[in-house]
Design goal:
Blueprint (H helix, E strand, L loop, with lengths): L4 H14 L12 H12 L7 H7 L3 E3 L7 E12 L5 E11 L4 E3 L1 H12 L2 E2 L1 H16 L4 E9 H4 L10 E6 L2 H4 L1 H12 L6
Parallel strand pairs: 2-5
Antiparallel strand pairs: 1-4, 2-3, 3-6, 6-7
Helix pairs in contact: 1-2, 3-5, 4-5
């Protein structure tokens, strides 16, 4: 479903009026249209199911026989909290999986994270959705997603705690119960050497 830009323009104009602004003043005249175009871009992921995203980015290649963990880290995304429509920012996503028969193109992992971020949601849901899509796209049940981010619903309003960071993990398959594999993953994310 495409974003209804006409409705957004109408409602943004109403919001401007409701907060005491003049939507016809020079600096705000084009704001409803700008916001409508921006929402079409930043909420693009709402228009796709997780299965559709998996189908969009499922380009895979034959896995090498000596397959081991694949990790793509420091994927920068942003999203919006479904409770306040507040920005979730400075988000870094790490996605790891253990290939079975196929490996996915590395850029597809970043594209999956980006598309999932373009929804109204909780950070926990971002991790769960990325993991689900990775399982579908790679045909591997062994997936981990680690997300670190800031939430403007905590930093800019309410408690106004500017230093708070939220860290979430989603572990599937081998990552779920294997503490050593989890530890190895966290060390790889932080680039710390493994202890001998």
């Amino acid at each position: 479903m495409a974003v209804d830009q006409a409705k957004i323009r109408e409602h943004i104009r109403g919001i401007l009026e409701a907060i005491g602004e003049d939507p016809d003043r020079e600096g705000l005249r084009e704001t409803p249209d700008r916001v409508a175009r921006m929402y079409s871009e930043i909420f693009e992921g709402i228009g796709y199911t997780n299965d559709e995203i998996a189908a969009m980015f499922n380009k895979t290649f034959e896995a090498p026989t000596d397959r081991d963990m694949v990790l793509v880290k420091d994927i920068e995304i942003f999203s919006y909290c479904e409770h306040h429509m507040a920005l979730m920012y400075d988000m870094k996503v790490a996605v790891a999986y253990i290939p079975r028969e196929r490996v996915i193109g590395l850029s597809k992992i970043a594209r999956i994270a980006d598309m999932v971020g373009k929804r109204l949601q909780l950070q926990e849901k971002i991790g769960s959705d990325i993991a689900y899509i990775m399982e579908k796209a790679t045909l591997s049940p062994d997936v981990a997603v680690v997300i670190k981010g800031k939430h403007s619903c905590m930093t800019a309003r309410g408690i106004k705690n500017n230093t708070s960071v939220t860290l979430t993990t989603t572990f599937r398959g081998a990552f779920k119960d294997d503490v050593k594999l989890q530890d190895r993953l966290f060390r790889m994310i932080e680039m710390k050497p493994l202890e001998q």
